[in-house]
Amino acid sequence: MSMERTELGRDIETALCEVLDHVRGDTVLPRRIVDNPAGRRIATLRKRFRLSRQNFADRF
Asked: What is the pTM of this model?
């Protein structure tokens, strides 16, 4: 096994350092909030068919 550091390894190390800095509060990482409209559609269908989550999952 080679102990040589690859470009991929260096990229992963850099990314992990960024995550640690964020967790420690030393930096703010960009973020994006994603809304999943499918969830609302599923809830509407469940109510229309009067099914619990489990019954809906079992049926579909």
From this structure: 0.47
